[in-house]
Specification:
It is built from 28 helices and 20 strands. It is an alpha/beta fold. The strands form six sheets. Strands 1-5-7-8-9-10-11 form a seven-stranded parallel sheet. The longest helix is centred in the N-terminal third of the chain and has 22 residues. Bound molecules: glutamine and zinc ion (ZN).
Length: 778
């Protein structure tokens, strides 16, 4: 198959899409609220897309991704492209409303499940595939966005999620496809089911073939097919599917050149398979991939391909070492047919630009590159390849200076922190045996059987938001802000006393976010003003940037917690975020291994637990909801991660005496692969999301000999529904089948900050009543 391929030299695999000032987020939310209509929404979206295309072209990219725009999520867009929305939304006549119903549900429809996109903090919607799903191509969105670009004279490269990745991320559900039932039958992403969904390739590959032909006819020279699933462990059978799929797609007549994009790791065996097909290009992540550029030398078939070299980190915020990148590119020129410069993955995972960060000092600014700055780096590197290194010598010099400035900055090395960590022996992260701790804690706490508690946050009331905004604008002073927060805390404590809960919390009114709150109080961290990154749908987060050694300047939570404790004789839990979660939801240093950063954060958290204890606090909870999230994609890397993650938690929580009870909280995941690690945390009490999985996690914990306190969530806080006393009693009886009463705690699934005050009062009332009933019958 001889076809003439026009290559390109500078591109990115995707871009942020919420708008530089989150315009798209606001427009979509206005549409949901009914304040703008579909026509207006479409016009705002189109303007944003066109402006963005022009910016990317003017920045110097010569192949520009299109079709990466999304009203909610690109995996959901792929389900629409393939006609694979669930049956339960089919009755919704309006296309956009049907789409949003699948994404977020409505009064009658359960939305698709949401889960994390590989090891990032972006969440996608999990397509549901039933035996009855009849796939049908709906290419209008992609063709429309291509046409917009073509009309602007832009060299556009349509992007789609590839067939292998689409099926591997989807979940197989029973034929009814009714959300609630199917959820208990099968969880997304499990190996066996996704394996079986790959037999549906025969149904969707022809649709992709048709799409390729249509894109070719519409003027696309290249198409990018995203296959990040190829960087995970694949069986021989799955690799065969990869081969046959791309053989078939490469054989389509009239197709554009095909770029298969991998990212988030090494392709491993899949590289040889892909290189052996007639696809025209392969995008390779040279940042997350540890195999590095040398591993490519052993793949002779790359000599006929365009290699799109991901040498600019698409997921982190550091300025690229351009000299190192050029040397990588130079090596690559020896094995690839042609080389184009790119980011390692889509820029979806970083903010738009540094231009909107007023508070950065100049040093720090010079070390960083957000989306726009990364695009500039790509074009500089591409120019060096095309025209010679001497044509970019000024840019190289600037980059070198910035790097040297960063390396020599005193904030990178805090000798006190480092000396303290060096002095800690292995015993510093070990507590006395759990049984001994249990005796001392129960004497001190004097709790009933089946103690009741909550996970930490209470509804974020409008008063809280008003107070925070007023403080930010300087309309109220610190003393007034503290007074208002204390009044919130007093309300939450009074509510819990009235409800009869046994272990109280202060409600977390002062926390904008469970990571940023701490990051703002550490040296070595910078919290951005506008560094928004899409987390899911219209929800954006601002991950703080860890750039130097972590130093806790002062106690961070003690005043709030001791204030709450002063209002009640019941124990109030201190509430902290664990080291793994703090790192998972930050941009982290790339100049030292992550486990080293984790130990520094752990030390700071440890100091806080000790201060809380010294102020009379008897229970401290250290949340690790992101424990599962950082789990590496390849089996071979998992244990090393779990070892350091567990060690960091234990370092953070073993500075206190045996009589201080350590709690942890875990959620957002299936815990299968981290069950041993959960036991390894050695927390006296673990509260864990369980309501939606019918307490199965308890059996898993038993299987690894877990014998500590556990509070499986007895109701799902993600829904506004108030659980009845009877159903909580049923949950508790189910839990008691797996856990003896001495170890069982009673709590909701997660924090309550997203819920309304009324539901929370009613739900917790029923939770306490249910615990009393079950307790009485023990
Ligand atoms: N303590 C936190 C809260 O209750 C935990 C949040 C979480 O698990 N993500 O909000
Ligand atoms: Zn949670």
């Amino acid at each position: 198959m001889e076809k003439h391929t026009v290559t390109f030299s500078a591109t990115v695999l995707g871009t942020p899409r919420t708008g530089p000032r989150r315009e798209l987020k606001r427009a979509i939310e206005s549409y949901w609220a009914g304040t703008i209509d579909q026509v207006e929404l479409a016009s705002i979206a189109r303007t944003l897309r066109e402006q963005h295309l022009i910016e990317l072209r003017d920045a110097g990219l010569d192949s520009i991704p299109v079709g990466t725009f999304s009203y909610y999520d690109h995996v959901l867009d792929t389900a629409v492209l393939l006609g694979a929305l669930p049956e339960r939304v089919a009755g919704i006549a309006d296309e956009l409303d049907r789409y949003f119903a699948a994404a977020r549900g409505d009064a009658t429809v359960t939305p698709l499940e949401m889960t994390k996109w590989f090891d990032t903090n972006y969440h996608y919607l999990v397509p549901e595939i039933t035996p009855d799903t009849t796939f049908a191509l709906a290419p209008e969105k992609l063709l429309g966005e291509l046409a917009e670009a073509v009309a602007l004279g832009i060299s556009a490269r349509p992007v789609v999620v590839g067939p292998i990745t689409f099926l591997k991320l989807s979940k197989a559900v029973g034929s009814s496809g009714s959300g609630a039932e199917s959820e208990s039958e099968s969880e997304s992403g499990s190996e066996s089911e996704s394996g079986s969904l790959l037999d549906r390739l025969d149904e969707i590959v022809p649709l992709y073939a048709d799409l390729l032909a249509q894109l070719g006819a519409a003027g696309a020279e290249w198409v990018q097919i995203d296959e990040p699933a190829l960087v995970t462990d694949l069986t021989a059978a799955e690799l065969d599917y990869v081969r046959s799929t791309y053989d078939r797609l490469a054989a389509v007549t009239g197709r554009p050149s095909i770029l298969v994009a991998s990212y988030f790791g090494d392709l491993g065996a899949a590289l040889h398979v892909l290189a052996g097909t007639a696809v025209d290009g392969i995008a390779i992540d040279l940042i997350a991939g540890t195999g590095g550029v040398d591993s490519l030398a052993g793949v002779p078939a790359l000599a006929n391909k365009l290699v799109v070299a991901g040498v600019v980190d698409g997921r982190n915020v550091w300025r690229t070492d351009l000299d190192a990148a050029l040397s990588t590119l130079g090596t690559l020129l020896g094995s690839a047919g042609t080389v184009a410069v790119s980011t390692s993955c889509s820029l979806l995972h970083v903010p738009y630009t540094l231009d909107v960060e007023p508070d950065l000092d100049d040093n720090l600014r010079s070390w960083l590159a957000f989306g726009a700055e990364k695009i500039a780096e790509v074009t500089v590197l591409a120019r060096a390849l095309r025209n010679g290194v001497e044509t970019v010598s000024a840019e190289l010099a600037t980059a070198r200076d910035a790097l040297a400035n960063r390396r020599s900055d005193p904030r990178l090395h805090n000798t006190t922190v480092r000396a303290r960590l060096d002095a800690l022996g292995p015993d510093s992260s070990r507590r006395a045996p759990a049984a001994e701790r249990r005796v001392k804690q129960s004497e001190r706490l004097d709790l009933p059987a089946l103690p009741t508690t909550t996970i930490g946050s209470y509804p974020q009331t409008s008063q809280i938001r008003i107070a925070r905004a007023a403080r930010r604008k300087g309309e109220i002073d610190e003393a007034e802000y503290v007074r208002r927060m204390q009044s919130e805390i007093a309300d939450v404590v009074a509510l819990q006393e009235k409800l009869g809960l046994d272990v109280l919390v202060h409600g977390e009114p002062e926390r904008n976010d469970m990571v940023q709150y701490f990051a703002e109080q550490f040296d070595g961290y910078f919290a951005t003003a506008n560094g928004w990154v899409q987390s899911y749908g219209t929800r954006c987060v601002r991950p703080p940037i860890l750039y130097g050694d972590v130093v806790r300047r002062n106690p961070m939570t003690v005043e709030w917690i001791t204030y709450a404790q002063s209002l009640t004789s019941k124990p109030v839990k201190g509430m902290l975020t664990g080291p793994v979660t703090i790192l998972a939801w930050s941009f982290v240093r790339d100049d030292q291994p992550l486990p080293d950063s984790a130990r520094q954060v752990a030390l700071a958290i440890r100091d806080e637990t000790v201060d809380l204890q010294a102020s009379g606090i008897r229970i401290v909870q250290v949340d690790e909801p992101a424990l599962r999230e950082l789990l590496p994609l390849r089996a071979a890397d998992k244990q090393a991660y779990l070892d350091w993650a567990v060690e960091a938690f234990r370092l953070a929580t073993s500075g206190v005496s045996d009589a201080t009870q350590i709690h942890t909280h875990l959620c957002y995941s299936e815990f299968g692969e981290v069950i041993d690690a959960i036991a390894g945390l050695d927390a006296d009490v673990t509260s864990i999301e369980a309501a939606r999985s019918h307490m199965e996690v308890l059996d898993d914990l038993n299987a690894v000999g877990f014998d500590l306190g556990v509070g499986p969530g007895v109701y799902d806080i993600h829904s506004p529904r108030v659980p009845s006393i009877e159903e909580i009693v049923v949950s508790l009886h189910a839990a008691l089948k797996a856990v003896p009463a001495e170890r069982l705690w009673v709590n909701p699934d997660c924090g309550l900050k997203t819920r309304g005050a009324e539901e929370v009062g009613a739900s917790l009332h029923n939770l306490v009543e249910a615990a009393i009933l079950v307790r009485a019958a023990l």
